[in-house]
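I have been asked to look over a protein record a colleague put together. Alongside the sequence sits a line of tokens, each denoting a local backbone shape. Please read both lines and tell me whether the tokens look consistent with the sequence. Take the sequence as given and treat only the tokens as open to question. I have pasted the whole thing underneath without changing anything:
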Amino acid sequence: MSKITTIRGMNDLPPEEVRVWNFAEEIIQKVFNSYGYEEIRFPIVEKTELFTRSNESADIVTKEMYTFEDKGGDSISLRPEGTAGCVRAAIDNDLIRVDSPRLWYQGPMFRYERPQKGRSRQFQQSSAEVFGIRSAEIDAELIILSSRIWKELGIEGNLNLEINNLGDEKTR
């Protein structure tokens, strides 16, 4: 009988690596909480439509999602990123009505892409989302928050910040 191993691009975390991850996750949680962000958790599996609705032609949707039909015939996907699930959960739980909610999350995400050094098909994502505030100040807050996390992790000298903009429906 052949040996069963992990799926290509998915990795086990032995105890010594788990300790490193726990250290990083605790710092991230501490920093997010210190800025008044509240943790939210949402499913690893979501309806595929959640990800396809905003950009059906994006590579992440057309090539990289783990999508399958469940026993009820619904198309579902392992989450490829956290923003869509966070927004859905905030709406479903009436959190958007709260005065400018600040939410954070962390957890495993999944993308079917070619595994290579530093890139796996299952990866951790930590992120913060802010609703109802349209200002440069909130953008600056998120950049400062990220910088503080990097500093507390002791990695700020090893990183370069690159800022991008997804645009809007007109410019996409």
The CA atoms of residues 52 and 61 lie 6 Å apart. The chain has one domain: 15-153. The first helix runs from residue 15 to 34.
